[in-house]
Design a protein that fits this description.
Blueprint lengths: L10 E5 L4 H8 L4 E5 L5 H12 L3 E7 L3 H4 L5 H4 E7 L1 H35 L8 H20 L3 E7 L3 E4 L17 E4 L3 E5 L5 H6 L2 E6 L2 H17 L7 H8 L6
């Protein structure tokens, strides 16, 4: 899909700090914010999380080049929520094994104390053969402990804090589509739209020399929203699966 709209009325800005007005408009959003940006910064993801917590509908389109996934401050973990589910039958079985393992430990300790006492008090070395039973109980308990550790009672699913798409970058060599989502598009309250070179990153907003246009032209904004909606619902491009990605981001203890 491609979009062309002629004679749009817009404001133009070129230079550093190109994102100042953009951030102001985003923070003043009353209904919704839609963003297309191949790169994101943790600090600006926090802005979206804050807006979402205040009832603003967020839609985000990005790529797996985002800083958050590969960096240390992973706000992406706040966008992908881990939900743990328990298998009650498996949990009951595990608890039975734990209880039995505790009984065996008590038997091992008790039998060891009895045998040691008999050997030293009665001076009868033949009671030492009783340690064969202790050894058998020890190996049985060790086996049970191994089974307890392997017993899977949890499984995990993942959901999104708000709707977003993460398209696979061709730079990673694992996409059948060579298209890279390089656009930077921002729509606020279906009334204001931004286009330009400005990524949703700290450097893009404040430090880089960037270009951007801002328009409230009703027809232009409608056309831009159509393109964003198409990207979100019908692009056909390879994207990250939230279940697979969640499993990469989080640990998944089995019990």
């Amino acid at each position: 899909m491609g979009t062309f709209y002629n004679n749009a009325v817009c404001d133009i800005y070129i230079g550093k700090g190109a994102g100042a007005k953009l951030i102001q408009d985003i923070r003043n959003a009353k209904k919704n914010v839609k963003i297309v940006s191949p790169y994101l910064s943790p600090s600006l993801i926090k802005e979206l999380i804050f807006l979402h917590s205040n009832g603003i509908n967020i839609e985000l389109i990005t790529t797996d080049e985002i800083e958050d996934f590969y960096g240390h401050e992973k706000n992406i973990n706040k966008l992908i929520i881990q939900e743990r589910h328990i298998d009650e039958e498996a949990n009951e079985s595990r608890n039975s094994l734990v209880s039995f393992s505790g009984t065996l430990l008590f038997m091992i300790i008790g039998l060891t104390l009895i045998l040691v006492s008999l050997i030293f008090l009665l001076q009868e070395p033949k009671f030492g053969f009783g340690f064969i039973m202790v050894a058998l109980l020890f190996f049985l308990r060790s086996y049970l402990v191994g089974e307890i550790k392997k017993k899977k009672i949890y499984h995990y699913t993942y959901s999104q804090l708000f709707p977003f798409k993460v398209f696979v970058s061709p730079n990673h060599g694992n996409s059948f589509n060579s298209t890279f989502i390089h656009s930077k598009i921002y729509v606020i309250d279906n009334e204001i739209a931004y286009l330009g070179s400005l990524n949703f990153t700290g450097k893009g907003v404040k430090e880089n020399h960037e270009t951007r246009i801002r328009t409230t032209d009703r027809h232009a904004v409608d056309k831009i929203m159509e393109e964003v909606d198409h990207l979100f619902t019908g692009s056909g491009l390879a994207e990250r699966d939230v279940q697979f990605w969640g499993a990469q981001l989080y640990t998944e203890p089995v019990n």
